[in-house]
């Protein structure tokens, strides 16, 4: 079985990326390891009093993201693909690489959308960082509006 790590950010194009990863998994008899990395600073805000931490904001956000991750996992499983998931907080690139190694991943599947810079517009800054630093092949799926 081929192990595929699929990072998701719940953005507008996540559904297309999941569909492409499922298609790939079916072609190679793969198992999908779904991961979402939440930022470490979810519960922090800045205001008149300076930086403040609101644990209830962080807790609610993490709960909502876990619900979304579970829905994606169930959608993948419904298509006869083995799947498990992880939600973790921290630096996305580092956590994805660590998770991929721990799961003996054969591929990391990423989308080609990005937000800034010429290269990043076509590939995406996280995808760019992973392709640069990963010893595991990164399969870049073109995602279109």
TrEMBL record:
It comes from the Bacteria. It is found in: Cytoplasm. Keywords: Cytoplasm. Residues 3-142 form the UspA domain. GO terms for cellular component: cytoplasm. Pfam families: Usp. Gene3D superfamilies: HUPs (3.40.50.620). Belongs to the universal stress protein A family. This is Universal stress protein. The gene is uspA2.
């Amino acid at each position: 079985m081929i192990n595929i790590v699929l990072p998701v950010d719940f953005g507008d194009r996540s559904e297309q990326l999941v569909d492409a990863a499922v298609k790939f998994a079916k072609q190679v008899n793969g198992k999908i390891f779904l991961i979402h990395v939440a930022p470490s600073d979810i519960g922090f805000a800045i205001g008149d009093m300076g930086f403040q931490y609101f644990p209830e904001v962080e807790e609610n956000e993490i709960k909502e993201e876990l619900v979304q991750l579970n829905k994606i996992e169930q959608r993948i499983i419904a298509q006869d693909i083995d799947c498990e998931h992880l939600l973790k907080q921290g630096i996305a690139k580092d956590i994805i690489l660590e998770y991929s190694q721990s799961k003996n991943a054969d591929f990391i599947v990423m989308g080609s959308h990005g937000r800034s810079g010429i290269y990043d517009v076509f590939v995406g800054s996280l995808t760019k960082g992973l392709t640069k630093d990963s010893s595991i092949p990164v399969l870049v799926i073109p995602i279109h509006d």
